[in-house]
Design goal:
With 80 residues, this protein is of the alpha+beta class. It contains 3 helices and 6 strands. It binds zinc ion (ZN) (2 copies). One zinc ion binds next to loops.
C-alpha cells in the first residue's frame, strides 16, 4: 500500500506524460482506420488488429509469422 502511494505521488509530479513514439495512431493499409496498435511490415505496410484477425489464415500459415501482401516479406508476431 505504501509503495503504491509513493508511486502515485511520483507519477503525479513532473514528466508523467511521456511522449512515446510508438503511441502514434497509424492508419491501417486495408481499412484506412487508425488503430492504437498496428502490425507493420518492414516495407511500411500497416495492418490493424481487426484486419489481421479477419485475414489471419490468409496471412499466416503457421501462426508464428504473417506474410506481407504487398512485398511478400515474412514478419513475426510479437517482434515489433
Ligand atoms: Zn484494418
Ligand atoms: Zn511488406
Amino acid at each position: 500500500m505504501q509503495d503504491l502511494l509513493s508511486e502515485n505521488k511520483r507519477a503525479g509530479g513532473t514528466g508523467y506524460r511521456e511522449r512515446r513514439k510508438k503511441s502514434r495512431m497509424e492508419p491501417c493499409h486495408w481499412c484506412r482506420n487508425t488503430a492504437p496498435f498496428v502490425w507493420q511490415c518492414r516495407c511500411g505496410l500497416r495492418i490493424c488488429q481487426t484486419c489481421m484477425d479477419e485475414n489471419f489464415w490468409g496471412l499466416s500459415c503457421n501462426g508464428i509469422t504473417w506474410v506481407c501482401p504487398d512485398c511478400g516479406e515474412q514478419n513475426g508476431f510479437g517482434n515489433h
